[in-house]
Specification:
Order of helices and strands: EEEEEEEEEEE
Number of strands: 11
Mean pLDDT: 97
Structural class: mainly beta
Largest sheet: 7 strands, mixed
Amino acid sequence: QVQLVESGGGLVQAGGSLRLSCAASGIIFSIHTMAWYRQALGKQRELVADITSGGTTTYADSVKGRFTISRDNAKNTVYLQMNSLKPEDTAIYYCNAKSTRFARLYDYWGQGTQVTVSS
């Protein structure tokens, strides 16, 4: 059974920092592209950052220079370090694991963790 369990969300003042973690089980973690998405109230889910199995990262323009995604394959965990947080970063943050093998897409989601940034 595949599980992605997020932690580290909470309430923080603008300008503060949070570190999200996502612990994966039931998958071969190292071969998956891991990503963080977020969904604010009334908005569509959007990609925040992702990191490939080879360590290549991409970021949404809105978080470049403030957020850092990283992974520890030995711990089956992906992280999102969020600095200089803004009220507009308030959202539910979801962990995602994705891989393609033998032409089949494997796509898994966590249940999400709430991040609230107060002004």
